[in-house]
């Protein structure tokens, strides 16, 4: 099966925003240190079936495999092994891994007391042999149970090794195979009619766990980092992933891992040189073979399917409506074969976006946009932001230039899973029973909440645009809507990003849409709001990175917009530009350095790069797209180079400068709206659609018919000289 169609123009790991999963090696080390919860006994129990009958079968199968394996390990004769029995062959490879000393055979006795000390075997072959040994027994046992009517074929699977050492780009894109590490493999799930052997060209959807291998225990942390990189790629390309299993093999020691949205749990070490360790690993493999798909890390409400009549694979996506008793659920199923926004980070909200329709036949003409996301409860009080959106729609939607400027939500709600006899909300508490308590960095029992939103379809992510003019038009329209939401409804967006600003193309031309109101908030009389810091550090303002609890203003959102423009301009719009950007791994003083796990590190980088003396060199060395470069320079000038802010962020307390800038917030916003208005008109001319889309309406906007003069006097009050006396800023 070929991978689901996916838009490639998504900032993050897919476009090389870092050497690995969008962050650099030092940041990756810090990230793992922050999220790691070691030695959790419950990790290997997570996949244990909830069915009493299946648990009984698992126990029988584990005992059968353990007894047979230990017996074969005792009688293996490495020097005179001529058996055609596959199980004996695999046992011979396993014995190399376990470090057994194998007695040598003689003519008088099948064994004597003189051991042959084996050299270190190929760890990949040892691991492969163990999986094949278990799968051989599992296949025979499952078929017998099915024949007896005690087991359904859909309730079991084979766990087989997948050796990914080919150089096919399709395999690299979909599986995230890192060819720099040839001792890399994956465990996959296969139907019972599969042959018990290693697979090198598996179907993408079979991958169930990523595996990293090394010869010694000293390599464990390095393997863990490689595992994190490849796990991020699994998230990015398997669009029905809730969490990901992983394994590291360091010599004869195995650790199992569960990668959740915010945390990485790891098991106690499993010593394959001991009988108890081999039985424990056997138990994990058998549990993977019998558990339901949700305990493998997949979302049962997002299902891959294939139909020759519709051309290629597609997704079935359920939207749930559950009654108050949580005993009945109503499903509305949508169909999609286009992911317009994949997961780009190892940790965080794991947002995905699908262009979908209500029938198979209409998938090529999607009617809705589905957003699947794991939100922290702080940003999700009472279930959703419906009150904020209701205010927006009532006050602004359908009036003048704001028509169509806000995403229209058709439905929104929690994702539910069927557990026991009831439907339960899918949270990190229900997803990881016994593990969630080990995460102490967020208080409360529910620290992530799985939600799904359906909005009227007409939009694309601006990161998927093929022309910078479309990005500029979308930015101008979205920020006009942003300003209106504040001016008329006292609502602050709080999370401007490449996904919050969207664009639509119709017969009338290109226009922008503002969405993603998960972190929006009503502002107080001060015009500020305390908004939780989102997961993504890449686009956050310096003030929010320095102090996540500091009240936010509109200028924080405009600063985030500047970072969005810089990132998109750095990535480029042609495949050649994107390939060049991804290949550049330096990261020093570049937009890639913003994509770090540490807010403080991102803040320091931005303080330096946004400073007056560094910005010119930064922008010319990073933002290759000329139109976006000019827009970024104009926005930077309005934000950082005026009497409220001297741009000396790198040599003093940045928060002092930014607080002083707030004094002139209205004046700065007026200039910013004027800037994006002028650039929008130029973009309309470039697209040949001038006048087909409503112009930006804001105090201080330039005359749309006027040709831009970069040296012209701004239409708003000049802000290039510090004034001793405080001036009253005009209301916007």
TrEMBL record:
Q: Where is the composition biased (Polar residues)?
A: 712-722
Q: Which residues form the Fungal-type protein kinase domain?
A: 205-378, 445-566
One Pfam family from the record: Pkinase_fungal
Q: Where is the composition biased (Basic residues)?
A: 723-732
State the InterPro entries in the record.
Answer: Pkinase_fungal (IPR040976)
The superkingdom of the source organism is Eukaryota
Q: Which PANTHER family match?
A: FUNK1 11, FUNK1 6
Q: Output this protein's name.
A: Fungal-type protein kinase domain-containing protein
Q: Which species does the entry assign this protein to?
A: Coemansia aciculifera
């Amino acid at each position: 099966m070929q991978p689901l169609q996916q838009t490639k123009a998504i900032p993050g790991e897919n476009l090389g925003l870092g050497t690995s999963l969008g962050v650099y090696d030092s940041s990756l080390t810090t990230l793992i240190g922050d999220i790691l919860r070691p030695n959790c006994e419950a990790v290997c129990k997570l996949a244990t079936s909830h069915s009493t009958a299946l648990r009984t079968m698992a126990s029988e199968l584990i005992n059968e495999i353990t007894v047979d394996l230990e017996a074969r390990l005792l009688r293996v004769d490495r020097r005179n092994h001529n058996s055609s029995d596959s199980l004996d062959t695999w046992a011979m490879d396993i014995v190399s891994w376990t470090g057994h000393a194998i007695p040598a055979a003689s003519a008088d006795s099948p064994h004597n007391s003189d051991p042959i000390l084996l050299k270190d075997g190929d760890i990949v072959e040892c691991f492969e042999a163990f999986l094949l040994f278990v799968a051989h027994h599992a296949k025979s046992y499952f078929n017998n149970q099915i024949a007896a009517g005690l087991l359904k074929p859909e309730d079991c699977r084979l766990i087989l090794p997948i050796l990914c050492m080919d150089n096919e780009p399709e395999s690299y894109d979909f599986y995230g195979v890192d060819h720099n590490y040839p001792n890399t493999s994956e465990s996959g799930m296969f139907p019972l009619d599969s042959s018990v052997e290693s697979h090198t060209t598996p179907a993408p959807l079979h991958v169930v766990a990523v595996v990293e291998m090394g010869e010694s225990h000293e390599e464990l942390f390095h393997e863990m980092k490689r595992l994190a990189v490849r796990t991020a790629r699994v998230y990015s390309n398997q669009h029905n992933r809730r969490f990901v299993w992983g394994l590291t093999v360091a010599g004869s020691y195995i650790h199992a891992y569960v990668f959740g949205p915010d945390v990485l749990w790891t098991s106690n070490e499993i010593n394959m040189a001991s009988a108890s360790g081999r039985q424990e690993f056997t138990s994990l493999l058998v549990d993977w073979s019998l558990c339901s798909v949700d305990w493998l890390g997949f979302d049962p409400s997002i299902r891959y399917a294939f139909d020759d009549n519709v051309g290629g694979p597609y997704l079935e996506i359920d939207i749930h409506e559950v009654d108050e008793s949580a005993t009945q659920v109503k499903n509305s199923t949508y169909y999609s074969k286009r992911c317009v926004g994949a997961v780009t980070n190892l940790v965080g909200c794991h947002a995905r976006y699908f262009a979908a329709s209500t029938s198979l036949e209409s998938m090529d003409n999607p009617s809705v946009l589905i957003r699947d996301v794991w939100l922290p409860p702080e940003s999700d009080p009472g279930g959703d932001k419906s009150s904020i959106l209701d205010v927006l729609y009532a006050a602004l939607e359908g009036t003048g230039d704001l028509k169509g400027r806000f995403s229209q939500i058709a439905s929104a709600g929690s994702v539910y899973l069927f557990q026991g006899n009831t439907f339960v909300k899918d949270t990190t508490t229900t997803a990881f029973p016994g593990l969630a308590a080990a995460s102490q960095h967020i208080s409360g029992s529910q620290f992530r909440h799985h939600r799904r939103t359906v909005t009227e379809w007409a939009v694309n992510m601006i990161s998927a645009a093929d022309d910078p003019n479309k990005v500029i038009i979308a930015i101008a329209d979205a920020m006009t809507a942003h300003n209106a939401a504040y001016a008329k409804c006292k609502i602050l967006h709080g999370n401007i990003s490449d996904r919050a600003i969207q664009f639509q193309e119709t017969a009338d031309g290109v226009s922008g849409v503002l969405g993603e109101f998960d972190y929006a908030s009503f502002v107080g009389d001060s015009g500020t709001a305390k908004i939780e810091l989102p997961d993504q550090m890449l686009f956050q303002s310096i003030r929010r990175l320095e102090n996540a609890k500091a009240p936010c203003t509109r200028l924080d959102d405009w600063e985030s917009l500047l970072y969005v423009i810089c990132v998109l301009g750095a990535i480029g719009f042609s495949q050649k530009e994107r390939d060049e950007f991804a290949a550049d791994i330096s990261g020093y003083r570049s937009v890639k350095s913003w994509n770090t796990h540490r807010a403080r590190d991102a803040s320091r980088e931005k303080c330096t790069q946004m400073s007056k003396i560094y910005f010119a060199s930064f922008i010319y060395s990073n933002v290759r797209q000329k139109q976006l470069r000019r827009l970024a320079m104009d926005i930077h000038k309005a934000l950082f180079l005026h009497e409220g802010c001297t741009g000396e962020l790198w040599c003093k307390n940045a928060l002092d400068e930014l607080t002083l800038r707030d004094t002139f917030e209205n004046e700065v916003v007026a200039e910013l709206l004027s800037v994006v208005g002028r650039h929008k008109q130029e973009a309309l001319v470039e697209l040949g659609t001038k006048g087909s889309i409503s112009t930006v309406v804001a105090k201080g906007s330039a005359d749309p018919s006027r040709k831009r003069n970069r040296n012209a006097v701004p239409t708003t009050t000049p802000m290039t000289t510090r004034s001793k006396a405080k001036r009253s800023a005009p209301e916007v």
